[in-house]
Design brief:
It contains nine helices and seven strands; from the N terminus they run E-H-E-H-E-E-E-H-E-H-E-H-H-H-H-H. By secondary structure, the chain is α/β, with parallel strands linked by helices. The strands form two sheets. A five-stranded parallel beta sheet has the order 2-1-3-6-7, sandwiched between helices. Strands 4-5 form a two-stranded antiparallel ribbon. The radius of gyration is 18 Å and the shape is elongated.
Length: about 210
């Protein structure tokens, strides 16, 4: 059975009316994390290395949205980025396009959102397709068993323990045991940290 990707969206805007509107449109298709400042957005990008897509305002109270766009592009090169702004400036538009992002004038429309979500799903499927190879590259270093490798591959995709157990044909407690072993071998405190270890080296190579 083909895996439908679980999407996480980053929405960055200092206007609560805008963030509520965008969140309302995106949350039917994934989990939405909201930041009202560049600082908070950077913290979320550190905490969660994989994103389905990002909607970013250009003018933030503590920085430029363009810096965030560049950060997301390095960290998640396949994920779509939509720049939301009421500021129409040809030079800025060219910079946004040079970063591979879409330039969308506020207020965002349903058509804009639908296109963005469709692109996010395509990108997430491509990312998922590359996860087994990423895991296989670290198996010798971490000394993971075949079942631990399988558990990690599914966990990185964001699947809950019960669904991982169903796919592997084992009990949820067995998955919990595999996960504890993975964390012990990797020296990480959570699967989230393991994901950071898996993908951070790739991000450094892209910069």
């Amino acid at each position: 059975m083909a895996l439908e990707p679980a999407l996480s969206f980053l929405v960055v805007d200092d206007d609560p009316v805008i963030t509520r509107s965008v969140t309302r449109q995106l949350r039917r298709d994934g989990v939405v994390h909201v930041a009202h400042t560049a600082k908070d957005a950077h913290a979320l990008l550190v905490a969660f290395p994989l994103w389905g897509g990002a909607c970013i305002d250009l003018l933030l109270p503590d920085g430029s949205g363009l810096d965030l766009v560049a950060r997301v592009r390095r960290q998640c090169p396949l994920a779509p980025v939509m720049v939301l702004t009421g500021w129409i400036d040809p030079d800025v538009i060219n910079k946004v396009h040079a970063l591979g992002a879409a330039y969308v004038a506020k207020p965002i429309t349903t058509e804009n959102t639908r296109r963005f979500i469709d692109e996010a799903r395509k990108a997430a499927r491509s990312t998922i397709a590359g996860i087994p190879e990423a895991v296989s590259q670290v198996v010798p270093t971490w000394g993971l068993s075949p079942r631990e490798s399988e558990t990690l591959t599914l966990a990185v995709q964001g699947l809950p323990r019960r669904e991982i157990a169903e796919r592997m044909g084992v009990q949820p407690e067995t998955v919990k045991t595999y996960t504890k072993s993975i964390l012990a071998k990797t020296g990480c405190l959570s699967v989230r940290e393991v994901v950071q270890q898996l993908f951070a080296p790739l991000d450094k190579k892209r910069t």
